[in-house]
From TrEMBL:
<feature type="binding site">
    <location>
        <begin position="264"/>
        <end position="268"/>
    </location>
    <ligand>
        <name>substrate</name>
    </ligand>
</feature>
<comment type="similarity">
    <text>Belongs to the class-II aminoacyl-tRNA synthetase family.</text>
</comment>
<dbReference type="InterPro" id="IPR027031">
    <property type="entry name" value="Gly-tRNA_synthase/POLG2"/>
</dbReference>
<dbReference type="InterPro" id="IPR004154">
    <property type="entry name" value="Anticodon-bd"/>
</dbReference>
<dbReference type="InterPro" id="IPR045864">
    <property type="entry name" value="aa-tRNA-synth_II/BPL/LPL"/>
</dbReference>
<feature type="binding site">
    <location>
        <begin position="375"/>
        <end position="378"/>
    </location>
    <ligand>
        <name>ATP</name>
    </ligand>
</feature>
<keyword id="KW-0547">Nucleotide-binding</keyword>
<keyword id="KW-0963">Cytoplasm</keyword>
<dbReference type="GO" id="GO:0004820">
    <property type="term" value="F:glycine-tRNA ligase activity"/>
</dbReference>
<comment type="subunit">
    <text>Homodimer.</text>
</comment>
<keyword id="KW-0067">ATP-binding</keyword>
<protein>
    <recommendedName>
        <fullName>Glycine--tRNA ligase</fullName>
        <ecNumber>6.1.1.14</ecNumber>
    </recommendedName>
</protein>
<dbReference type="Pfam" id="PF00587">
    <property type="entry name" value="tRNA-synt_2b"/>
</dbReference>
<dbReference type="InterPro" id="IPR022961">
    <property type="entry name" value="Gly_tRNA_ligase_bac"/>
</dbReference>
<keyword id="KW-0648">Protein biosynthesis</keyword>
<feature type="binding site">
    <location>
        <position position="100"/>
    </location>
    <ligand>
        <name>substrate</name>
    </ligand>
</feature>
<dbReference type="InterPro" id="IPR033731">
    <property type="entry name" value="GlyRS-like_core"/>
</dbReference>
Amino acid sequence: MANDDKFKKVISHAKEYGYVFQSSEIYDGLSAVYDYAQNGAELKNNIRNYWWKAMVQMHENIVGIDAAIFMHPTTWKASGHVDAFNDPLIDNKDSKKRYRADVLVEDYCAKIEAKINKEVAKAAKRFGDAFNKEEFVSTNGRVLGYQEKIDSTLKRLGKSLENEDLADVKALIEELEIADPLSGSRNWTDVKQFNLMFGTKLGASADSAMDLYLRPETAQGIFVNFLNVQKTGRMKIPFGIAQTGKAFRNEIVARQFIFRMREFEQMEMQFFIKPGTQKEWFEYWKEHRLKWHKSLGMGDDNYRFHDHEKLAHYADAATDIEFNFPFGFKELEGIHSRTDFDLSQHEEYSGKKLQYFDHEDNASYTPYVLETSIGLDRMFLAVFSNSLQEEELDNGTTRTVLKLPAVLAPTKAAILPLVKKDGLPDIAKQIVEDLKWDFNVVYDEKDAVGRRYRRQDAVGTPYCITVDHDTLEDNTVTIRHRDTMEQKRVKIDELRSIIKKEVDVREWLMKM
Ligand code: GAP
């Protein structure tokens, strides 16, 4: 399936099978805002729990908090978001469409990268087993030319953005002859900065109401609580504070379904370390987070690191874990070495000391921070889009199957009476009653059993359990596996342990 078609299929499947709905759909929706439906909410909870288990409960030195969305407005002055949380925007005068100027340039580079990949694929086909990719990309003249173009373009973009030289960003767009992707027009306005925070008010009366922002990241709720947690938890450096929660950004170029939303959820962890150790912790968390992703078995080749050329105002090193979405490799998670920027800023703006006394060194210091930050909705999209597959079957038909990692699947098993009579529904319902203490399971008696299998395949349920007339004789049922479609006869008593083996968080996290 072509990538565009695949992505359209992902969006329509998410709606049809109760995963994601457009927000306020009966009023024609709200742009870049989405609601999670009955299966989506379960999948989202399971992803969040998988992260929380790995990051908080499996680490003795990491604790979790749940800070408020509203924060004192000075927080955002201190963090730099009031002054520096901007996107460089450019308008096309003909189409009246607005774009992120840096994204236009990055998309231009992505197109050149696609050309490199094409050359590599062609050469791999030509040379067969003798093909050495590394050698090819470092010697082939055409590839080297493309790579040089990408490197010099991104370098110039990074420098212009860092120096706030927006005129040069526009000049770059013009020199590269970048056109509006919709209209093809090259009639651009100047590039302007636009702050992404949503403002709101706290208080009833107009004169006394306080101007607030909806938090654009969850991280600041952790920084302002650093000392509270350190003291009450008697935490010793290095230690981490994690949380999951909503964040809000007035994204101008909100697109690609739940990839870039205005209201979204983050799962962040701030790891407080001794100054000078940030390089080794940066490497540690890069590797650790990649292992977490890979533990879900979604294809090791679908991940890559992308080191930042242009660093955010708070970072001395940063990388993204990119995932191969249906529209190409894009950021899924950020790993940032944030230095002591945030704690020092909050010290300065609040006038309160946010230092750590190190008993080993007999000295106080402001800790440095290593951050891991992943968008829950983006992770949802990665899991969902990667799992959606069309399979050709031996009998010439196709099936649509959502091969979600079983640990994340909303429903772990569907219990199906073969027919709606002869006492089979009662046994099936009894199995549901029994299993629901341990797993999310459903009862389904509508339609022929084959159609029920297909329905559960499309929802992503790892197991279907069918109760038939033999069950009345010997207490056995047929258990069918979603991915292999293999069917086995097992005792009802064995069901719990069979399902547990497949869906248990422990089994999956052990792969890290
Ligand atoms: N505290 C650091 C921070 O917020 P970020 O790179 O701006 O860093 C971290 O965001 C992660 O949050 C991203 O890697 C992405 O997964 C997710 N994210 C950011 N903006 C988003 C948006 N508008 N919609 C959905 N997810 C978003």
